[in-house]
Design goal:
It is a single chain. The radius of gyration is 21 Å and the shape is globular. Helix content is 33%, strand content 19%. By secondary structure, the protein is an alpha/beta fold. The protein has a ten-stranded mixed β-sheet.
C-alpha cells in the first residue's frame, strides 16, 4: 500500500499534510470527517473533495478499509463475530455485543499474540505483527457501517496484548474519543492487559479516563505461572503496585478478570486467597467461565463451583460478577474464529482473495 497511513493521523497532523499539498485549510476538516464520522471506505467516496485532490490522496497515502471475510450471528443471544481481512492477507477478529446500555464492540490489537496464556486461542501460533491505529479503528468503523448502529462502548480484549502495542493503542484511543470523530466517551472504553507494569505506569501518566482491566486469573504468583507465562517475567506484587498507581493517578476503579479453569484455580481456597489479595481495593472482579479450546485440556468450571467461588468473594465484601457467556455457538472466544480460518487452509500473509468484498 502506498504512502503514509492517513487514517492514523491526528487532526493536527492531517492539517499539516493538507497544507503541504497546497490545499485550503478547510479541506483537512472535510477529509477528517469523511474518515472518522462518515466512515468512508476510500477517497472515492469523498464527493465534496475535488477530483484532483482525491487522486493525489490515493497515490500518496495509505487508506485503511477492512474487507469482510466472515460474519457470524449467534442464534443464542444475537452476538455478532466478524473476521476482517487486512491489506497484507492477515485476518483479525472483532465482536459486537448488544446490551441494554448500548452496543459494545471488542476489538483486536495485534495479529496473534506472544503472551502465551495457556487457556487462550489467540496466542496459538504466536505474534505475527502489531496493528496500526487505523487497523484498530476500522474494526469499530466497519461494524458500525455494516449494522448501521452506533457503537457506544469499546473493550480492547480481542486478540493481542494491547500494552504490547502501546504507541498504536494510545493513538487509537485518542482518535476514537476525539470530539471531531466518533467522540466515544473514554469512560466507556476498557483496555485489558495481562500485566506489563512499566506500560501500566505509562498509561496512568496519560491520565485518560478509560477503565484498566487486569487479566489476573490466579490468586498467587505460583499459580499464575501455571496459566500465564508473563508471570515468569513480572512478579504479581509489581503488577498490582502498577494497578494501584493507575487508580491513584486516574481515580478509575480497576477491573480484575479471573478466568475460572476447572480443577486449576476454582477451589474455595483460591477464592479465599483472592479475597485476601484484593482486600481494601476499590475494584470489580469479573469471573469468566473459561471457553474450552481443542488445543488445550482445560475445562470450564461447573455451575455449582462458579457460584460457590462468587459467594466466597461476596462474603468477603468483594464487588463481583460472573460474565454472561455470549456467542458461544459462533466461536465467540478470543482467537477461535481466526484460528479456524487459518486451519482451514487460509494462511495469514498469503496473497489470496478473501471470500468477501469491501464493506457496503
Amino acid at each position: 500500500m502506498p504512502g503514509k497511513d492517513i487514517k492514523s493521523m491526528t487532526f493536527e497532523e492531517l492539517s499539516a499534510e493538507v497544507a503541504a499539498l497546497g490545499e485550503k485549510a478547510f479541506r483537512a476538516g472535510q477529509l477528517y470527517q469523511w474518515m472518522h464520522r462518515k466512515l468512508a471506505r476510500g477517497f472515492h467516496e469523498m464527493t465534496n473533495l475535488p477530483k484532483t485532490f482525491r487522486q493525489t490522496l490515493s497515490t500518496q497515502y495509505e487508506y485503511t478499509s477492512h474487507i469482510l471475510v466472515d460474519r457470524r450471528i449467534s442464534k443464542l443471544d444475537g452476538t455478532e463475530k466478524y473476521l476482517f481481512g487486512l491489506h497484507d492477507g492477515n485476518v483479525v477478529e472483532s465482536v459486537l455485543m448488544r446490551y441494554h446500555f448500548g452496543n459494545s464492540v471488542c476489538i483486536s490489537s495485534q495479529v496473534g499474540c506472544r503472551m502465551g496464556c495457556r487457556f487462550c486461542a489467540s496466542t496459538i501460533g504466536g505474534l505475527n505483527r502489531n496493528l496500526t491505529p487505523a487497523e484498530m479503528l476500522d474494526q469499530v468503523y466497519s461494524i458500525q457501517r455494516i449494522t448501521g448502529e452506533r457503537v457506544s462502548h469499546l473493550v480492547v480484549m480481542g486478540t493481542g496484548e494491547p500494552l504490547d502495542n502501546y504507541d498504536s493503542l494510545l493513538r487509537f484511543l485518542k482518535l476514537l474519543s476525539d470530539e471531531n470523530g466518533l467522540n466515544l466517551s473514554q469512560r466507556n472504553i476498557t483496555v485489558s492487559t495481562c500485566g506489563l507494569p512499566e506500560r501500566i505506569h505509562s498509561l496512568a501518566d496519560e491520565q485518560l479516563q478509560i477503565t484498566l482491566a487486569l487479566s489476573l486469573h490466579a490468586p498467587s504468583q505460583e499459580k499464575r505461572k501455571l496459566l500465564m507465562p508473563v508471570a515468569y517475567k513480572y512478579d504479581l506484587r509489581d503488577v498490582l503496585d502498577a494497578c494501584r498507581y493507575y487508580f491513584d493517578r486516574t481515580g478509575r476503579r480497576i477491573t480484575f478478570e479471573y478466568s475460572l479453569v476447572g480443577g486449576i484455580n476454582d477451589a474455595p481456597e483460591d477464592a479465599a486467597q483472592l479475597a485476601k489479595l484484593l482486600k481494601g481495593w476499590n475494584c470489580h472482579i469479573n469471573l469468566i467461565p473459561v471457553n474450552p479450546i481443542k488445543e488445550r485440556d482445560y475445562v470450564q468450571s461447573d455451575q455449582r463451583t462458579i457460584l460457590a467461588f462468587r459467594s466466597i468473594l461476596e462474603k468477603n465484601g468483594m464487588n463481583v460478577t460472573v460474565r454472561r457467556e455470549m456467542g458461544r455457538d459462533i466461536a465467540g472466544a478470543c482467537g477461535q474464529l481466526r484460528k479456524g480460518y487459518i486451519d482451514s487452509g487460509n494462511r495469514s500473509g498469503e496473497s489470496c482473495p478473501f471470500p468477501g468484498s469491501v464493506l457496503e
